[in-house]
Amino acid sequence: MPHAHDVQAAGNRVEALLAELAAHGDPVARARTEELVRVLVELYGAGLERVVEIVTEAEAAQVLHRLSADDLVSSLLVLHDLHPLTTAERVSGALDTVRPYLGLHEGGVELLGVEADGVVRLRLAGTCHGCPSSQRTATDAIEGAVLRAAPEVSRVVIEGVADDRGPLLQIRHSPPPGPCTLPETLPEKVS
Questions:
Q1: What distances in angstroms separate CA 64 from CA 46, 49, 89, 93, 96, one per listed residue?
Q2: What is the Cα–Cα distance from 153 to 69, expressed in whole angstroms?
Q3: Is the dihedral of CA 152, 165, 137, 123 positive or negative?
Q4: Whole-model pTM?
Q5: Predicted confidence (pLDDT) at residue 191 exceeds the cutoff of 50
Q6: Strand 155-159 relative to strand 119-125, pairing
Q7: How far apart, in Å, are the Cα atoms of 2 and each of 8, 11, 16, 44, 115?
Q8: What are phi and psi of 92, to 5 degrees?
């Protein structure tokens, strides 16, 4: 059972349960269950929206900041499209959290942009280029931080990272038979 504070895991568990119902349950029960989930999500979203409105009306920027900085609340704000920060602002904040670790490699990371389809483009700079294991660690840390702060991101593309994977083994058909490269007559053995 997923931890109650992990929004992504809870969402995945709900989807798995709905899939089980689809496979084994009757269609009416499945439809009612999906409606139940939808109604609950909408109710909690409406409640959360009201909380954000009340905090905003009270001009309590500190409270809104604390709510948006909390991992659980932040995930719910993103889920209901209520987060006060844009995706780019949250990604920039996430990069700030990993920069001190990248500094160990004299590297840094720059946000190039967030595309409409949710692709985040970054540029990695520094000496991480020559060290594949450090590079992998750095890119994993960057991607993890970005996806925690902005789960709506569809993909993270990091420029300046050499692909440390070898080329894929290509299996091809054998070439068609062509002219024989061996001479018609072999030289006689010289004794």
A1: 17, 12, 15, 16, 20
A2: 18
A3: negative
A4: 0.64
A5: no
A6: parallel
A7: 9, 9, 12, 19, 31
A8: -60, -40
